[in-house]
Amino acid sequence: MPGLFSFTLTSITVIILKLFDFFAASVEEFMDEAKMDKTQTYPMGFTFSFPVKQTSLNSGELFEWTKGFSADGVKGQDVVALLNKAFLKRVCALLLF
Known about the structure:
- By secondary structure, the chain is of the alpha+beta class.
- It has a single domain (11-96), classed as Nucleotidyltransferase, domain 5.
- It contains two helices and four strands.
- The longest helix has 18 residues, at 16-33.
């Protein structure tokens, strides 16, 4: 089984792009360990446990950070689009839903 991914309490307050880049790097590491073809597009479920205004099945704008998280520049942003951007920079095209 590929490794587990975690981050420390000191990394909870982050710049959002770094947070999504961390997610993308973790998925990339998993894909490498699983020897997955990164030229393919894969479906991927995405649970974002923060209050969002869901505007479609695969998009939602963040209302507010909770649970001790804080990241500037993301309120009102589509978190799925931000995560997709991080994946495209680093890994592959993932179909988030």
